[in-house]
Automatic annotation (TrEMBL):
Domain N-acetyltransferase: 39-174
Signal peptide range: none
Family matches, as SUPFAM superfamilies: Acyl-CoA N-acyltransferases (Nat)
Protein's name according to its UniProt entry: GCN5-related N-acetyltransferase
Domain of life: Bacteria
Key words of the record: Acyltransferase, Transferase
Protein's UniProt keywords contain Lyase: no
Length: 174
């Protein structure tokens, strides 16, 4: 990071404190999860740290998510209730996590949703999000929120298509 900016692998500067979009939805009715042949969903563990690190870096274009970072911030973090992944023929290709943020009260955050660039457009992002929402509901949560960035247009379209709505805090947010 330099001057508040991260440089991704494509050479684009991304602001570390850029504007975020908060979206919410109820967990009362969730579509069924549909997976392509050769795909399985599992809860990730410390043994998956290197694969998860590689996925994050490929998906987001950064190179700072080391296996050690993944263990500390995701897989061994008491605020992260679970991290799920989709494997295709043994390769981790999509992921999402359930993050508990005390400031959000009883509402969990859908966190660190990522799909490997080589597997985008195949419905894996939708599948891992829906699976994670089902798990949240099974755990007794009533609603969920997520935070994303305005430049993540495909992700925003996905979230809107499965029932998330943007939270507008004031006139500036409209």
């Amino acid at each position: 990071m330099e001057n508040g900016l991260y440089k991704n692998q494509k050479g684009l500067n991304i602001m570390s404190d850029s504007v975020n979009i908060m979206m919410k939805r109820k967990l009362d009715s969730i579509d069924k999860v549909s997976l392509a042949e050769g795909c399985v969903i599992k809860q990730l563990e410390v043994a998956d740290a290197e694969a998860l690190s590689n996925l994050y870096n490929a998906a987001f274009g950064f190179d700072f998510q080391t296996p050690e970072w993944v263990i500390k911030e995701m897989l061994d973090n008491p605020q992260v209730k679970a991290v799920y992944g989709i494997e295709h023929d043994g390769k981790l290709v999509a992921t999402a996590a359930i993050h508990i943020v005390p400031e959000y009260g009883e509402t969990p955050e859908l966190h660190w949703v990522a799909t490997h660039p080589d597997y985008r457009g195949e419905g894996l992002g939708k599948a891992i999000v829906l699976y994670t929402l089902h798990e949240m509901k099974r755990m007794g949560f009533k609603d969920v929120l997520l935070i994303t960035q305005p430049e993540r247009i495909p992700a925003i379209k996905l979230y809107l298509s499965i029932g998330f709505t943007p939270e507008v805090g004031n006139d500036e947010d409209k």
